[in-house]
Write a structure and sequence with these properties.
This protein is an alpha+beta fold. It is 32% helix and 15% strand. A hairpin with a 2-residue loop joins strand 1 and strand 2.
Length: 79
């Protein structure tokens, strides 16, 4: 696992142990979304206290698999 000035590099995320804990900022950088979006996505997290959520790599990978869709365009819901 490579760190640069105390921060994980993007390439290192795939090399993390599955039980590693990440901050919301690290998850946001990994998924290329805003920090606030990480909180809204519903990714399972571990509560380490006030304003201290941590995300386990295994939980993130499992959550990502549940979000996988078959190829093709999204279909609009019929009303």
């Amino acid at each position: 696992m490579e760190r640069h000035l105390g921060r994980l590099t993007t390439a290192a995320y795939g090399e993390l142990p599955r039980d590693a804990l990440l901050t919301a900022d690290e998850v946001a950088k990994w998924l290329k979304v805003a920090r606030r979006q990480v909180q809204r996505l519903g990714i399972p997290w571990i509560d380490l206290g006030r304003k201290t959520p941590r995300y386990q790599v295994n939980d993130i990978l499992t959550w990502l698999e549940t979000r996988r869709r078959d190829g093709g365009w999204r279909r609009a819901s019929s009303t």
